[in-house]
Please model this.
Amino acid sequence: MGWPVLRQFLGGDPLGRSSSVVSRKTTEITPRTTTADRAVQSVCPYCAVGCGQKVFVSDEKVVQIEGDPESPISRGRLCPKGSASEQLVNSDTRQTTVLYRAPRAKDWQEMDLETATEMVVDRFLESRRNKWQDVDEHGRHLGRTMGIASLGGATLDNEENYLIKKLFTAAGAIQIENQARI
Ligand code: SF4
Model:
């Protein structure tokens, strides 16, 4: 039954959406999702829709990412970008170390995470201190800084946004925005 139409009608698949359109190669391969050790529920990191994902893991390595049918947001669906997020995890070109480009330097240099974090903290505190406003021109209490601001990305989740809002408000910042609102 090499001819596709014959396969459809004699193979009990008149609409051509089942066994008659399965290639030999497809029958010979096994989906990574069936051989994975486990599947972990997660959220797509790419955009504010927040589609649910099932991350399939074998030997402690991510081998496939699919839509999660249990997600009330996406009900098992992912857009092409979300469907390709396995490539984000396993790409050879993925940047896994901190890079720093000094003022007026042309090149980036690798930096350990602790040093980079200390630099961010120092600058955050200095900027906050330098632009601190205790009172306005009428002597009314302000207790704020104009030296720091936060612009969140849409890939941040609820918990991260909650903590960022808490941190910046506690530090006296008043410009706290998110890319999803722009
Ligand atoms: S799958 Fe697509 S639509 Fe869903 S969160 Fe990811 S990027 Fe956004």
